[in-house]
Amino acid sequence: MVSSADTGYKVNPARLEPVDLAPYANRGFSDEFDNDGKGGWFDQGENDFRMMPTGAVEAAGVAFRIIDPAENNDKSCLVLAGTDRPKFPLSIRGIKVNRKFSRLYFLHTAAWGGAADAGRYRINYADGRSVDLPLVGNRNIGDWWNASPLPEALVGIYRKNPAGNNIGTYIAEWENPRPETEIASFDFLSPLFREGTEINWRPDTTAVPILIAVTGERAHPKAWELTGAACLGFSGGKETGCP
Q1: Pair 7, 150: CB distance under 8 Å
Q2: What is the pLDDT of residues 13-24, one digit of tens each?
């Protein structure tokens, strides 16, 4: 849990590693024409986030690497469908991680972000198991206008855009319940995404989520991993390794 009194997450910078989102980005930070189905961000014209910093950026104590659209075919973020943008993708799946992390930090935000349902992240482990992180409006993700700290997220990057709006992003922390198991990938799932033949019997207004960057924190190494040496003991007159 976080509160408005927090100014940043407590992390060890030496153990942070960015997850490469460049191959999966589907939109840029800048948009020229409102609701034309092209361009970037939430397709709202100059009401966009074209002033997003790129490259190595620190926010709320966490180091992120934000894609420069000029270096990635004008694609710099991952945007999914929601009630007001139903033609956006329903999912972006198989985002490669291939590392062991004790925590993941998601730099994200949403349009119409006060809606309770803002999608989810599905963490896929190398052993075939998975776990979902639901995105809940005004809890661990929120609306990008007038961003303020939430019960489970801190404000990340905050700016004023060309349309004159105060806009911002959020950083949510996910504690991995299985840090000893490699995370193979994760899926970014829209609030409109349904499993197989699943039907939404109570359609409500949903948010349009956007993912900007992800950083993982490696678990603290064990003592023998720090030295690279074997841990020796004695049992029945024979040397034994670490337990």
Answers
A1: no
A2: 999 999 999 999
Those residues whose C-beta lies under 8 Å from the C-beta of residue 125, and which sit 6 or more positions away, are 131, 178, 181, 182, 183, 184
How many angstroms separate the CA atoms of 130 and 127, rounded? 9
Write the pLDDT tens digit of every residue in 174-216.
Answer: 999 999 999 999 999 999 999 876 666 566 899 999 999 999 9
Backbone angles phi, psi at 6, to 5 degrees: -75, 140
C-alpha 41/C-alpha 99 separation (Å) is 29
- Cβ–Cβ under 8 Å, residues 235 and 224: no
Beta strands in the chain (DSSP E): 16-19, 55-59, 62-66, 78-79, 91-99, 103-111, 117-125, 130-136, 154-160, 166-175, 183-189, 208-217, 233-235, 238-240
First to last CA, the chain: 34
Give Cα 238 to chain centroid, integer Å.
Answer: 49
Q: What gap in Å lies between CA 148 and CA 164, rounded to an integer?
A: 17
Which residues of the chain are modeled with pLDDT < 70? 1-6, 197-203, 222-243
Q: What is the dihedral of CA 107, 113, 119, 125, to 10 degrees?
A: 20
Residue 25: closest CA among 217, 210, 216, 215: 210
Q: Measured between alpha carbons, how far is 28 from 187 in angstroms, rounded to an integer?
A: 20
